[in-house]
Design goal:
116 residues, alpha+beta, four-stranded mixed beta sheet, globular
Amino acid sequence: MFEVLAKSTGWIDQSLKLRDYDATPSIRTYVLISQDEQRAMVYARDEDGRLGIRSAVLLEGVDAFVEIPELGLAVPFSALYAGAGDRAGHGGDGGDQDRATERDQLPAVAAAAVCA
């Protein structure tokens, strides 16, 4: 499961959804992708079968990649953030223009996650 963190809903992805996905055994890996910087938090089921902080791995930087072994998938950050360019890190006051900009900044993985 991939989620792109938005400023307005990031807390939901990092708490409520993590809890819900932990309770869904068919979800083996949960990847939270930052839209503001090249950073991802990857949760994989641990030896107890849980998704949680003990299994979390923080990935950062242009040379990092997200690896999902059970799918044979290794996606470099360069692909995840293709087209994001200098727009990452955009701050704002939360108005309509900022929401439109947030949508424009979403990493390329968002489309892939919807299709997967």
